[in-house]
Design goal:
Elements lengths: L4 H9 L14 H6 L7 H18 L1
């Protein structure tokens, strides 16, 4: 998991209209603030591709 449920809940709670986006996670200080390791761009983008592939297969 790239960001974790806690961050997702915080972001969702701060919006009037829930919107979710898919991205590679570019903001290193946010990752560090939550105590997550910040993998290389290649690893982050591979995770995005895995999520998109899983989502596309389930529809």
């Amino acid at each position: 998991m790239a960001r974790g449920e806690a961050l997702g809940a915080i972001v969702l709670g701060m919006t009037n209209v829930p919107e979710m986006g898919i991205g590679g996670g570019w903001c290193e200080h946010e990752w560090r603030a939550y105590g997550y390791a910040f993998p290389s761009a290649g690893v982050r983008l591979a995770n995005v591709n895995a999520i998109i592939g899983t989502s596309a297969a389930s529809t």
